[in-house]
């Protein structure tokens, strides 16, 4: 059977940005034919996974306050299934890296990422986590967390508005929905084998900016 | 413009002891300096907590390899932290200091970043992906007066091996950011607390030295993001003072109103977070619900929710919107009613009262010695409000009460914040109908150069005195820009008042002190 386009309730597919990345991902998966039973089971599992993304709260500065706002009454991320935030990396699906990462913090972030169980995702929230932001030329700031951990979704802003954080989380949901879980994300990892490179879904052409 | 008296290093300690005996009991600020040819040095700003007289002293030393200055950490308790900071940035060793470690940077960091000859290249200090080793043994220097250079006399252990040590942080929800505690326990009781900061040290002060004055403004909002307006107000005020620029009445009104709105915002967040730390999620939702309404007003005026970039040199970025006054008044009326709910749902709750009354008592003497300005100091009975001590903007024209409690415990610290919300509303109500017509920004030259000299300006931030020190050499960039952190005295005090309490109380004390880590680390 074939992998279909990811559906998010109440927002049409065309209104999302950066659909090309997802379509490339779908095309890749569709190259290999999947058994109907396994495929349906995959869909079911992904439906469940994408609607209960548990995040590790990793708020270092301003963006953390906006993340708290998203959790409070007005924006209320419980509507989308992100409301469970975990304080232990072993129970979390993704790191919300909200804030500047400094030289002293970098080993901590790396270690937390390594402690998480697969499948795991990283969301870089705010300019500092994406590229160092306003502190780019400081002696003590890491210029983008993608130098030490792979990032799945970038949410730009300084700090991003709560709506942007919700949108970024939906992009992550869409990405989770088009993954091959059985035999893909969930296969046994061999000892010493490095995890696969993540496919990056962006709201904003951050990568191109960097290369310029 | 500051008038600094230089003291000879030989008579330095005696002078400082004399000043303390003369009633200078509040060490307001301690600024490390690198004057290149004239050597390294430290500027001390002292204040008499009763008369509010201010005195500025400085000490200089030409030695660069191992500069040593006698400590004042036994005279003012806060100097222990400030001296560690100066050591971290400038490599000045303080003879007689009990715990001479780096404060912000890793202990294997090479060089002292705020020195003018510091080499920032990546090869010397690459991003290391393994954590630093805990420094268990520290150097302590003998203060013997006849010796030229103090000698390493003793190795003192921070935490002994036979103690039970637990680590909290740097990534922990109850530390309000990235602060790391190492606790030595006996049963459940804390015996010693060792605080590590610097996990969000971004080197803002060093970066400011290569920025023009208008560019430095952007950093202040990101220091303590819950007093973004006040921080930026302080820097703008300091630069305007140095330029001799007078802002219009309209600007003063707008700045004062926005400062107070920001204070309400911060206190609401403090209430919400304290409630959440202690397990009362309902109060968290209540606090944030009302904070969102405030953020709506802020957003309409400034365009930003949290980081607003509103104040600029000579005025504000944009004029207030037409419906501003009506919206603020509506909000104020609403908030006054809501405050009663907070008392009903959280403050008068018996569980909360039991957990906070009598917990983490900070005495008035300690509060002054640690320099814990803001709500924490006022909860201990110290009248330390900058708005009353050194009035700025319109605070000498409006009528408001300085909230003082004398208990000094966690409960009083929360009450001070909640009552300050009422006072802030009171200030806003006096101003909101009388905003005069006029320009919202005085025109300035495109390139701003300050005259030579040293300038200091302070405002009452949301959690204490926020000061800005500028040393200008007549360039378009500052030679040295120092922010007085509001939080560093708070965690210095926390280290002391947490002792003897249980681990769960540590969370309450931390929440009630209301520190914001990016402001401490800068």
Task: Briefly characterize the structure.
The complex is a heterodimer of chains A (212) and B (522). Chain A has 212 residues and is an alpha/beta fold.
Structure description:
The complex is a heterodimer of chains A (212) and B (522). In chain A, α3 (62-71) links the parallel β1 and β2 (85-86). Chain A has a domain at 54-182 and 197-211: 3-Layer(aba) Sandwich (Rossmann fold). In chain A, 38% of the residues lie in helices and 10% in strands. Chain A contains eight helices and six strands; from the N terminus they run ααβαββαβαβααβα. With 212 residues, chain A is α/β, with parallel strands linked by helices. Chain B has 522 residues and is α+β, with helices and mostly antiparallel strands. Chain B folds into two domains: 4-138, NADH:ubiquinone oxidoreductase Nqo5 subunit (Beta Polymerase, domain 2, 2-Layer Sandwich), CATH 3.30.460; 204-521, Cytochrome-c3 Hydrogenase, chain B. Chain B contains 16 helices and 16 strands. A four-stranded mixed β-sheet of chain B has the order 1-4-3-2. Chain B has a three-stranded antiparallel β-sheet with strand order 9-10-11. Chain B has a three-stranded antiparallel β-sheet with strand order 14-15-16. In chain B, α13 packs parallel to α15 (503-513). Chain B is globular. The model of chain B has no long low-confidence stretch (mean pLDDT 85). The A-B interface holds A 57-62, 64-66, 68-69, 72-74, 87, 99-100, 102-108, 110-112, 134-135, 137-142, 147-148, 158-159, 161 and B 104-106, 113, 118, 120, 125, 127-132, 170-173, 177-178, 198-204, 206-207, 210, 218-219, 222, 225-226, 269, 272, 284-285, 288-289, 291-292, 295, 305-307, 517-518.
